[in-house]
From TrEMBL, chain A:
Residues 197-240 are annotated as: Disordered. This is Type I-U CRISPR-associated protein Cas5/Cas6. It comes from the Bacteria.
TrEMBL record, chain B:
It comes from the Bacteria. This is Type I-U CRISPR-associated protein Cas7. It comes from Natronosporangium hydrolyticum.
Amino acid sequence: MSFAIVAEPLLGTYRGHVGSGQLDPLPAPARLHAALLCAAAQGVRAVADGDGLQPCDADREALRWLEANPPDGITVPETLRNGDDATAYRKEGLIVKEGRNPLADKLIGKPAVSGVALTGRFAWTWEQEPPPPVATALSELCPEVPYLGTSESPVRLAVAEAEPTHRLDPDADLFVGEGLDLSVASSGRAAALEAAHREQSVAPPVKADAHRSSEKTTPPPVVTTGLQLGRYTRPEPPPPPTPWTSVLLFPMERPVPPELRVRYAVAVHRALVSLVGDGAPAVLTGAYGEGATPPSNRCAIQFLGPEAPHVGGNALALLLPREASDIDLTLIRMAVQRLRQVKVGAGPFKVAPPVEIPADQFWPEPAEGTQRWWQTEPVAVPDSRPPRGGKWSLADAAALSVALVWRDEFTVSGRGDARYRALAAAAAGRGVRVESAVRVMGGDLGRYVHKVNPDTVIQPYRGVLHLGDLTGARTIAAIGQSRHLGGGLLVPRDLPVEIARRLTQ
Amino acid sequence: MRSLDLATLLAAGSPGGSSCLTSTTALEPAGGRHSSVAPAKFADRAKKGGVYAYEQRYLGDESRYAVVIDSKQSQLNRAEVALAQAVEDGHPLLSRVPHVRVSYERDGAAEHYYDLTLPHRVYDGHIRAGSIDGQPATQTPAYRAVRDASPANARALLETSPVTLIFGGWDSSRRSRQGRWRSALVGEIVGFVSASRDHSGALQKPEAGLRGGARVDPVGMQINLNKKVMTEVANQQQAELSPTTHGEILKAANGIKAGEAKSASALGLGGIPPSLDQLAGVACDAILRTHVLSFATLRQMRFGAGVEGDAACRALLAALALNALARADAELFLRANCDLVEAEAPKVRLDQRGGAFADLEPLSIDAADLLLSEALAHAEKVADVTWSGLAMRVTGNPDIVSGAVEADEAAP
């Protein structure tokens, strides 16, 4: 970062008010500008202006530069918001009649606790260094600022280095989206404040100074000229690695019915293993040596219907896992080029040569005004039996399945049931929400899984879920026990933003 | 470690000088770390009765709950009272600090109040409503000069009410050219307490403990009086009772029918059964007293004395603020059940800009007096400052004193 002004609160708190007295959670760029103007206009750098003072030319230039160049970024430290019902009553120094006769002191109650506590410093940052005279003026002006907000929050202000946590989005639509919408000084702000100050600095006539039996505070007018809102947004963190890096998409002539997908996937699996031949990698076969720790995910085989993207129709998808080595992937890619026909009980089916699509660019973008949620296709199957000791719902099972797919994103302690519960909770902590999870009843439930422990009760379900910040909106993935063989594919289900917000709360 | 001297204050008051001086002191209960302390009580907006003020703070990088043991306003009041007490005691140096006195006559006796302790300092309503030499104070050139003082020239305030410049003041009811002086000195005492966290790690606000209270009257747990006796006893104690309480007791007495008697608990007679409804003390694992003296604030004041003279005036104000601080810090009695001691010597740091700091020796009262006398002598010499004590005598408005009510009645 090229240039930054840093504010260190000396009592560990920042206290300020905005609007009609609401708590100010952080000093906006406009407050910094006002504080610098105040220091410039009455500190040691100010020059005579009649019987008053005004900023020197260098400081005026610096303030104009600030107006033309709002901070590109701000640094917001970790803060804790305060305020409760404890009220401090004080005499205000005004004699107020207010119905009493004779006169009485006025008592006013204010919150005993307000403001925010913080660890670290606030900063306003610019990507480009200001012109040298401006940089010099700001460096010398900053230490002349005693407070930001009320006098109860003294600061030490200096030009120093800082890394922004939020960046100005000059194209932001302030009515849409999220971010910190902060007051920013724009052209003419300093001039307007100075003019208002000059007007307020004229001593009233002697008669108007007479004590009145009923007094009240007359704060100076609020100057709004030269103020605009700027949105500062926290840069989106890069999405976590996708569980599968890319997809080999084979066009097919006809769709595979949902209840046959596991069976068809098993057939494709056999065909692929056969094509690779001896030494087929474990990420394809699923057979790992004794003592080896299986990865979170291996090659997954899924089917898409007539709406399948990229190929414009039905398709067989082979998802290549992130954990596969380059050698294994090369073997698989070479073998699949020869896949043309798959034999299955209902009759063989043909596939066209595949195209490879990056997994994080698989699905189309969400429609405008919607938020991307996901629906299991056709159904998902829980990865485990319900853990003992406490309630466990299908929604918990779905959250656990998500956590197992993105297992490397979570560090949880414990083993067995405790670990399952911790993983489900950790997924919720990353924003995973299950809006609905409906058990599929009747029929041969075995059609949704390939192999299962004979003691395990199969509970396939249809679910709609949000994946929080675990993945991007276009990423293809599948969850659950059958995710590698035709089950638990997550297909987009875009919900209107208002509904989606309610669901994520 | 060097001591704070006049040269340091002069440098801090000059262009390019320090931003601030900070003083941090670790305190602990006088009874030992196992003891609890009684924090300041505040009114509760939501219900009747007092509460403690808890707020979240960081201790290092750890989020904690802290309880306000002494607020910023209270700490400043203690500094002002310390100065006022020294003036009252006829301290030869501090008696020279200019101040404003408001005098009332009540029941034939003179009462004096000073800008040092009036809530709004030199802009307080008691001063503005009063008169000087028979003329309304607000119409006199001397008081007008105080009100018209500005950062461009605060000389009138320096020579009339310098405490307004260091503790702050706001001429909030004036129509224009309001004096708005931020306090150059701020401080607080907070105690860090233990608090549990919820499943997400968020702190849960501590609940203040309660202690039991009772009163035993060896004559009888309940003493009932008839109308005549209750009226007589109330009238005998009238001087000890507030007008409101006295009136309420007489009203209750008047309601007693012949042959009946009612509880005289309002007169302090009879016992009070034990109840668990009083705020208990709070155990703190760290108590910190912090003060900040802002030289940046002082540098926003000029006194028509040129660069050197203005720096001398700022050094004088800084010395006065430090004197008040040294005196207030020396007395650690805050309130009942809140006796504290210093666990270590105060850490005093002077900002030297650019990330550099100078560690200074804590200021004793004697050293603070010496520093103030040197600062005053220097200001007299280079800025023609004259400090000779009482600077403005104000005769209080009789309407006000006749309407004054006791604080406990005025409070909501």
